[in-house]
Amino acid sequence: xxxxxxxxxxxxxxxxxxxxxxxxxxxxxxxxxxxxxxxxxxxxxxxxxxxxxxxxxxxxxxxxxxxxxxxxxxxxxxxxxxxxxxxxxxxxxxxxxxxxxxxxxxxxxxxxxxxxxxxxxxxxxxxxxxxxxxxxxxxxxxxxxxxxxxxxxxxxxxxxxxxxxxxxxxxxxxxxxxxxxxxxxxxxxxxxxxxxxxxxxxxxxxxxxxxxxxxxxxxxxxxxxxxxxxxxxxxxxxxxxxxxxxxxxxxxxxxxxxxxxxxxxxxxxxxxxxxxxxxxxxxxxxxxxxxxxxxxxxxxxxxxxxxxxxxxxxxxxxxxxxxxxxxxxxxxxxxxxxxxxxxxxxxxxxxxxxxxxxxxxxxxxxxxxxxxxxxxxxxxxxxxxxxxxxxxxxxxxxxxxxxxxxxxxxxxxxxxxxxxxxxxxxxxxxxxxxxxxxxxxxxxxxxxxxxxxxxxxxxxxxxxxxxxxxxxxxxxxxxxxxxxxxxxxxxxxxxxxxxxxxxxxxxxxxxxxxxxxxxxxxxxxxxxxxx
Length: 531
Description:
By secondary structure, this protein is of the alpha/beta class. It has two domains: 8-406, 3-Layer(aba) Sandwich (Rossmann fold); 427-527, 2-Layer Sandwich (GMP Synthetase, Chain A, domain 3). The protein is built from 17 helices and 26 strands. The chain has a nine-stranded mixed beta sheet with strand order 2-1-10-9-11-12-13-14-15, with helices on both faces. Helix 9 crosses helix 10 (221-233). The radius of gyration is 24 Å and the shape is globular. The mean pLDDT is 90.
């Protein structure tokens, strides 16, 4: 018998039944469904996919859908049919997407005509358009779905064999962003996602009146767990818009439905500060950011405009994704409030352990010392699909090696100082690229609204590596910048050579707004052909 926490399908059926007459999901196209309607629509979708598209042996199914009611229904229908949903990243190239399809053996990709035309992608699999599926709905499909949605809950659970689900049963495969190489297929189980949803609830204290703003793509693990399965299995309603950078539409949707919780990236928040009216986010109580560092000045600007201060969390695709988070004081209920400490990414969520170990020896370090962050808990992935050797490299004795260098204080608050891939070993010392970027930005007084420079490491025959700075604009010469950095106390090994500053038209970014490290390094190498 699966635990209540990991049995997402049981919780989904019970949530839809208990909220039968309450608005459960809506999107900016005008679609609105109550809990009862969501369940009925999901059951119809399941019947259609089984009859018109999928054979019994087809385990993995691709989805190419933006955040929307249609995406919610499709994911729920596949889970209810014991299929593994693979939500595809429509910001990737067709070549990379097709590599993902081949790796997972995907024969069908469910999408819509609009997104297929907009993304201009061609798949090595059969595309199934939602518009075509709708025309194949029969009267008996609707009647069967209605009858099932009205039957006693125990019979409904028995019909869909929800008691047979185990915490290690595979729910989804989410491909990593590929910021440091080719995307890897992360296998996440019912227990992984279920435990993360439950832990999120225990620290944020979700309420019946909560409305969760779903703007993160569902191919992103934060969007998949928090804005999809939290809505499917918990009291909050979910409202969705397909493009998080369309600030006016996001603000209008939030204002219309009274959004109280938003998870986003700092890149998206910058857009809202510039383009949204204060009344758009008048009901917001919780704003949690991830994927990149939350600058204090951005938090100040957002709070000044909308009356709620964003806080920072931390996670990875491989950890389902949330590892830790700060919690706004208004939600820190109980005798021991979870707490918030700016500049950190919060404390590990309930049930999750974290430790910092020496980069060379792997020995656990005392609080306050910098090293590699390791994570252990029910949220740690099953592994990389079809790549057991890569899985063995990052998971040892249940501990997942995050690749992030961090410091943990005595209260358990974690500060991320950079990715290991964003360090250079120069003269035997680990030099953090992000710290050098921040120091350059500080001496230049750069606006935080958009990234204008990136520091990377390239091979060097004398020191092992050297720092390279890519920039889109500078207000001072590289030589003057280096003098100012030295005057500010930056260690000599951390100082880039003025000859290693290179102008570029733009910096390569991922859909989340993070620097695309792989493409940035290729760009740096093209500027330095001798490396």
